[in-house]
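From the methods appendix. Each design record in this collection lists the tokenized structure first, followed by the designed amino acid sequence. Records were kept in a plain field format so they could be parsed without special tools. The example shown here is representative of the layout used throughout.

RECORD:
FOLD TOKENS (177 positions):
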């Protein structure tokens, strides 16, 4: 099976004179660039390689300050502005699917005690963890996307959770109206 690639960031602007650029996450993703990651630049240049290895990566206020192996001048960095960075899904963190709105929105969420609590309709980013907004028979349920609450996130399967008591109104075992 061929590798799957995901758009993870976009080059927003240059930074400095030595080829550094500022990359911002794509599609509501968290910051995913890291040292050693190989990415494809899209659209590719007519000359040179479309593939670049991240040499250094630091988190900044407006994205990530990134330096690529083969980009060493301001002119070369300027040609990257506006390009999208694709990464092989296998090279992304194991919990990547838990943080990708494209993978989450529309997925069913099943609690061990309550059964189906609905479908993910939104993702809220937090400083410590993300929170899934789930709409269903219990109303709107905010599910912290952390272990041990999230117990399983297999592809093409419902997301399995173990909600702490009190997160939904279980009084009388009736869903919220």
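DESIGN:
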């Amino acid at each position: 099976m061929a590798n799957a690639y995901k758009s993870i960031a976009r080059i927003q602007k240059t930074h400095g004179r030595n080829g550094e650029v500022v990359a911002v996450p794509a599609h509501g993703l968290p910051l995913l660039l890291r040292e050693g990651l190989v990415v494809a630049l899209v659209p590719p240049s007519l000359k040179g390689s479309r593939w670049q290895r991240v040499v250094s990566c630091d988190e900044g206020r407006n994205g990530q300050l990134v330096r690529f192996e083969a980009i060493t001048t301001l002119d070369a960095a300027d040609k990257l502005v506006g390009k999208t960075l694709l990464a092989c899904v296998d090279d992304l963190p194991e919990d990547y699917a838990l943080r990708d709105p494209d993978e989450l929105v529309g997925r069913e969420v099943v609690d061990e005690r309550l059964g189906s609590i609905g479908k993910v309709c939104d993702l809220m980013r937090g400083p410590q963890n993300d929170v899934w907004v789930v709409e269903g028979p219990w109303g709107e349920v905010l599910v912290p996307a952390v272990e041990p609450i999230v117990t399983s996130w297999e592809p093409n399967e419902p997301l399995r959770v173990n909600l702490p008591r009190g997160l939904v109104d279980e009084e009388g075992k009736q869903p919220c109206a």
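APPENDIX NOTE: Helices lie at 74-78, 101-104.
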